[in-house]
Amino acid sequence: MNAAATIREYYESLRRGEPLYPYFAEHPDVVKFGVGERLVGYDAVAEGLREQTRTTDDWTVQSQDLRVIERDDHAHFSDAVFMSWTTPETEYALSTRWSGTLERRDDEWVFVGMHVSTPYVDG
Fold first, then answer.
1. How far apart are CA 31 and CA 123, in angstroms?
2. Which fold has domain 3-117?
3. How far apart are CA 66 and CA 12, in angstroms?
4. For an engineered disulfide with 82, which of 62, 100, 115, 117 has Cβ 3.0 to 4.6 Å away?
5. Model confidence pLDDT, tens digit, residues 69-82
6. Which pairs count as long-range contacts for 42-46, CB under 8 Å and 24+ apart, including other chains?
7. Where in this chain does the record put each SnoaL-like domain (predicted)?
8. How far apart, in whole angstroms, are the C-alpha atoms of residue 67 and residue 102?
9. What is the pLDDT of residues 21-40, one digit of tens each?
C-alpha cells in the first residue's frame, strides 16, 4: 500500500469508528494536533484517539484536495477535509486543513506527525 492509500484508509477507519492509533508510529516523538488538542508521544496519541472513538459517532470525512509526495521511506501530505460528527451533547461540522508526515515501516506507512486545523479564526 502506498502513502496515499494509507491516508484514505485512515479516513475510512474514522468513518467506521474503528481504532485509529495503529496508524501512528509507536514512538515517543510522534505528534498529533487536532482542532482542539496537542498530543505528543505514542501513548498520548493512542489514548486521545481511543477517547475520540469512544465519545464520538456518525463521522463524515470528505477529502477535497489530497496531495501526497512520497519518497523512499517518507511521505508528506496535505488535504482540505470537510468533516462532521456527533457526541452525546451536540453535532459538529467543520471545514478543516490536514497536513502531516508518514514514515515507511516494514512495508507499511505510519503517521509520525499529523496536524488538523480549521481556517477560521475567532476575533
1. 28
2. Nuclear Transport Factor 2; Chain: A, (3.10.450)
3. 14
4. 62
5. 999 999 999 999 99
6. 45/21, 46/21
7. 5-120
8. 13
9. 999 999 999 999 998 899 99
